[in-house]
Amino acid sequence: MKVEIDQDKCIGAGQCVVAAGAVFTQREDDGIVELLVADVPAGSEDGVRDAEMVCPAGAIVVHD
Amino acid sequence: MTRVLPEVPAYPMARDGRCPFDPPPPLGGLREDAPVSRVRLWDGSTPWLVTRYADVRAVLADPRVSSDSDLPGFPHTTPGVAARRGRVKSFITMDDPDHARHRRLLTSDFTVRRMEALRPRVQGIVDGLIDDMLAGPRPVDLVQAFSLPLPSLVICELLGVPYADRDFFHRASRTIIARDATPEDAVGATDDLLAYLGDLVDRKDAEPTDDLLGRLTAEQLRTGAMSRAEIASMGLLLLVAGHETTANMITLGTAALLREPGQLALLRDGGDPAVVANAVEELLRYLTIVHLGRRRVALADLEVGGVLIRAGEGIIAATDAANRDPGAFADPDALDITRKARHHVAFGYGVHQCLGQPLARVEMQVAFETLYRRLPGLALAEPVERLPFKHDMIIYGVHELPVTW
Prior knowledge:
Domain 4Fe-4S ferredoxin-type (chain A): 1-30
Protein name (chain A): Ferredoxin
Helix content of chain B: 40-55%
Order of helices and strands of chain B: HEEHEHHHHEHHHHHHHHEEEEHHEE
Structural class of chain A: alpha+beta
Oligomer: heterodimer
Cofactor (chain A): [3Fe-4S] cluster
Keywords (chain B): Heme, Iron, Metal-binding, Monooxygenase, Oxidoreductase
Largest sheet of chain B: 5 strands, mixed
Number of domains of chain A: 1
Keywords (chain A): 3Fe-4S, Electron transport, Iron, Iron-sulfur, Metal-binding, Transport
CATH architecture of chain B: Orthogonal Bundle
């Protein structure tokens, strides 16, 4: 599973970090999303799908 | 034969007094039969009310839909709210790119990591308040003893607002969110808070402090990027939103859980932070305390749920109805702290979704986990039917919650 983020769309709500903290983080200086890993590690797939669903800004796209 | 046009229903609608935790019953009927339909507001205007989950998310995420309350057609919540516009302008009533520019000044202050780092401090405050409750008389009003002090203390520390001034800003906040506040009172309370926060900015300009308002003063005021008035407006939003919402969630959530002891026991005895975190999401969904909808106005013609909304027409996204949509949540009227509820829209949706949600989550998780563990015999001292529910406020809750243990 691959995940794509759009930092211009991101509003820093942090929903993705709550859903999948092993994959997403927020930049220290402005709270915008960053990927911790390029490939989604085993066990984080459901969390990443949740992150895509709950992201309020549509900034996360998952490719299976 | 003349055809009688169906009457446009008045909004907001009244809740059923026997079901104070449920949205007004007519909302369910509209969601079923007319999910995008006209309602009549206090000023006679007839904006569109959107009640289905998918439509609510679509509207709130649509860049053709504006949050700018200065635009004609914007459906103002109350006469007081309408009268305040122009005096106070923060990113909650701005569109991008201005909205994003202002919001991004604050996003680093409310990241999940920063808020998790506050957890020990929140725990300390919660434990201290419960220590005081245990040492004090019973019954006690949970609002004054616990629900209100907790988020007030935390937001004061974050912003750099003296907690000693809480009586003043609690009173002003209450006026601002009272549905029956006169325009004069709403404007007066707003001006008082803005003057207070402006003075605070001046003090921080003279003597810099290491807190959010101090940092905005140093980095934005002194560089000319923001005016004193803009920082005061932003401070007002953070101060009011930072304590009213969480306080009401803690109180109303406790009232709901005490009525469903099985659910409360699951939360208390789960012994797992994930159980508590899930329960908080379900309570957010179930209670949806921002209960008068998210207000917007269309910038262009757009179709929502098969209905054409014209440019300039007002839209109310009823997040309370959306959070009870059976299309999004099975058995939606049941409080079930084990369900998957993370996709609720209690914090709104789209670019305006709540900035402080990571803070609210930490506060609620610590509050609910600790309160029922340390006061296992917690019980209402008044029957639910006698509780003063906040039908009269823009943010729902209970004015007083007498409890004993």
